[in-house]
Amino acid sequence: MVTDNGRSDFIEALARGLDVVRSFRPGSPSMTLSEIAALTGLARPTVRRILITLEELGYARTADRGYALTPRVLELGMAYVNALNMWDVARPHMEKLVAQTNESTSMAQLDGSDIVYVARVAVPKIVTLAVTIGTRFPAAATSMGKVLLAALPPAAVPAVLAEPSRSGITPRWQPSPDALSTALREVRAKGWALADQDLAPGVRSVATGVRDGEGRVVAAINVTVHAAETSVETLLEEHLPRLLRTAADISHDWSLTAAIPLA
């Protein structure tokens, strides 16, 4: 919902437009004006004007039930990924990791209480949940989410997790605050995290952090396997060392890239 926090330069119309775009969630590819108005707290005439503007710009279209977003919205997210140059730096290392493990690898960042996938190299295997660039999952139930949450100051974690998930997924593992705090302490101590079917049946993964030149965890990278095919022992004993090496290599290259002066 729009909030200006009392700042004089706040552009309310832009904030309202972003609220409308964000109201389209998994399971709701198209919605009526009334549904969007209810989700955003905006008046129907305001929602209508915003949608007409988005349609004119190519970001929305009319649909059977009202309006739907168009693939052009992906340009907004990819602008962020491309600006970081994350994919260009990470991709060769991730492809090498996939060749070594014959398993999929992904990179994600934290957005509120969710992780958002920003890079991925996949192998053609059947898994419970489909994953693409931009996919969101509740952070606490994923290996990458645990890594990213553990990288935060412990006092900041409750406020981050208090934000409602926008993933549309109900994870299997929904820990108490104490249980999650204990799990994150273990991640900080080890430098990596395991998620053994915490998100959904059959999904098992291990993750670690990718750091910038100042040593800050700015993303997480994982190896994901099917629980029926790969044991926890294999995941940790064979795939984890390769994952840690890959994360270190990406971190090294990322820091070098960031150090290159702009022309």
Can you tell me about this structure?
The protein has 263 residues and is of the alpha+beta class. It has two domains: 12-69, Winged helix-like DNA-binding domain superfamily/Winged helix DNA-binding domain (Arc Repressor Mutant, subunit A, Orthogonal Bundle); 76-259, 2-Layer Sandwich (Beta-Lactamase), CATH 3.30.450. The protein contains nine helices and nine strands. The longest helix is centred in the C-terminal third of the chain and has 28 residues, at 232-259. The mean pLDDT is 88.
Q: In terms of structural class, how would the helical and strand content be classed?
A: alpha+beta
General form:
globular
- CATH topology name of the largest domain: Beta-Lactamase
CATH H-tier superfamily of the largest domain: GAF domain
Share in helix = 40-55%
Q: How would you characterize the largest beta sheet?
A: 6 strands, antiparallel
Number of helices: 9
**Element order: H for helix, E for strand:** HEHHEEHHEEEHHHEEEH
Judging by the overall fold, what is the CATH architecture of the largest domain? 2-Layer Sandwich
Strand fraction band?
A: 15-25%
Rg (C-alpha, Å): 20 Å
Low-pLDDT runs of 5+ residues are: none
Domain module count: 2
CATH class of the largest domain: Alpha Beta
Average residue pLDDT? 88
Query: Count the strands?
Result: 9
The strands making up the biggest β-sheet line up spatially as: 6-5-4-9-8-7
The termini sit apart by 40 Å
List key phrases describing it.
44% helix, 263 residues, Beta-Lactamase, alpha+beta, six-stranded antiparallel sheet, 20% strand, globular, Arc Repressor Mutant, subunit A, three-stranded antiparallel sheet, 9 helices
